[in-house]
Amino acid sequence: MIEYNCREACLSDLEELVEMTSLLASETEDRALPHDTVKSGIKALIENPPKTANFKGIILVAERKPSMRNEDNLLGFLSVAGFEWSEWRNGMFIWLGSAYVRQEFRKSGVGSVLYRKAKQYAEQCGAIGLRAYIDKSNSPGEKAHKAVGQLQTNYILTENLFDVK
Questions:
Q1: Residue 145: which H helix or E strand, with range?
Q2: CB 74 within 8 A of CB 105
Q3: CA distance 63 to 74
Q4: What is the DSSP letter of 48?
Q5: What CATH code would you report for 4-147?
Q6: What pLDDT digit, counting tens, does each position of 110-147 carry?
Q7: Which of 20, 29, 45, 64 could form a disulfide with 68 if both were Cys (CB 3.0 to 4.6 A apart)?
Q8: How far apart are CA 91 and CA 59, in angstroms?
Q9: Which residues is 63 bridged to in the sheet?
Q10: Per the confidence metrics, is the pTM higher than 0.70?
Q11: Where are the domains of the chain?
């Protein structure tokens, strides 16, 4: 059994998080992401912690305990990167972003522990619930979300991407 800790990501995790995010895109959507864009996006989350003007969210990581470290210290991550006020419910939802667990640690409980940490964070923020989106072709991701209690809704997610440089 692997021993690990969960914590908020820091800048020393940046390269491993970029690597895992690229693996996530490749495995789930068969996409190659621009390294510099991913690196900047992750860095923006890490460098703007809660209670700062540019706060964007947090990234939770599961890491090997110090006695078990090697070149891949992070086992997985989950980003908590969105907030939505619901006037219907008079409360805030928190959106889960990217989630990834290295293949050799899947079904070991790492993803569930990261989810519980995100739920705890959301509750501490006073949120009324968690929301997430999953690519239609990502059935393992869908199963993982269902396993922790996330239910499919009647809502359809839409977007309009702006050409921002």
A1: helix 139-147
A2: no
A3: 4
A4: S
A5: 3.40.630.30
A6: 999 999 999 999 999 999 999 999 988 888 889 999 99
A7: 64
A8: 22
A9: 5, 74
A10: yes
A11: 4-147
